[in-house]
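Newbie here. two chains, one complex. Structure please?
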Amino acid sequence: MKEELFELLLRLADDHLVLGHRISEWCGHAPTLEEDLALPNIALDLIGQARSLYTYAGEIEGKGRDEDHLAYLRLEREYRNLLLVERPNGDFAHTILRQLYFSVFMQAWWREAVASTDETLAAIAAKAVKESVYHVRHAAEWTIRLGDGTEESARRMAAAVDALYRYTGELFETDQVTDSLAAAGVAPDPASLKDEWDRTIAEIFAEARLELPDPRTWQQTGGRKGFHGEEMGYLLAELQYVQRAYPGLTW
Amino acid sequence: MVAETVLDHAGMQARAWEAAAAVPDPEVPCVTVADLGILRSVAIDDDGVAVARVTPTYSGCPATLAIELAVETALREAGFDARVERVLSPAWTTDWIGEEAREKLRAYGIAPPAEASGSIRSLFGETQVSCPRCGSSDTSRISEFGSTPCKAHYRCEACLEPFDYFKCI
């Protein structure tokens, strides 16, 4: 069970670190000053959650790796994050939709994880679930504003829906890791969250006057096994540069 | 001898609490870390070390480290060997901000958290926030995310002043 828990914590921590890094790329570039504060604020939440998860993963692994080691000193193939979170920011519509897809899933995931039989994971979840409420609201309000906005904003939002839907299937994938942890009551079964996710997304898309994507859309996969897109290498180059160039450097 | 040690222990604990509790929040200096409920407890362990337990407001709050350092420094200045532990559970909530601290926040120009937390609000639930300057409830939200992770950005439609709102969590 220890190995499965380590793997799960790493997946979750990588999701949060990579998405936090992506959103932080907006700092200084967001379309309005308020968004320039909002996006880095959300990035802070995600990176804070990643830190707790990495620290705990290191303890579970028991090989002396700490949060910095896990975040900065692994190779691309060792990252277990979803392909969705590593997608480039694209335009603001792409960023918002990626955020909506992920936050709606994580809100449901954290809510279940609050009752985890693992005390530490339950404690991390109890904090994260409250933060995720704000993330969902932020993304949902923007999705509606853009989808039901001008012709141009609606067109861009629809393009984002088309581009990103194929990366959502991975959210609900199960394997031996998720199955055994779900059976032990440690972590929710991701497949069981699909109905709620579909309902929430449909409700928001209806208000945003966005068409729901075809559920038969072919789904991309690979992130959980360490197979990433081309953009991941560029992301890690920036994320890891300082620790690679100056090993052990501290502020 | 035993009774004296126990007495002394309690006295030390009270002194240590007093020293740690007086530390102001680095981002909202009108209130202390104890007012905000960030400082959970101070105990004297078997080796006579003052152990302060601190909980972050938000997972990624950058002030957490500054608060831990400030609490440790305050304890050392009060003559204690000190250690600070970060605890996640139970998760911090705005319900721990006392009535007096809410008044201090209001006087400082920050609208205190309006509702009891714990209720995960509906997707588009609106919060009633009153202007900390003129008291009007005719306010509008400019952004859910303000100058720090714990605050949102509002504007009063009556006196037209912008202000920070301490978010419920």
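Moderator note: Residues 68 and 79 of chain B are 17 Å apart (CA to CA). Strands of chain B lie at 39-44, 49-54, 81-86, 110-111, 139-143, 151-156, 162-166. Thread marked as resolved.
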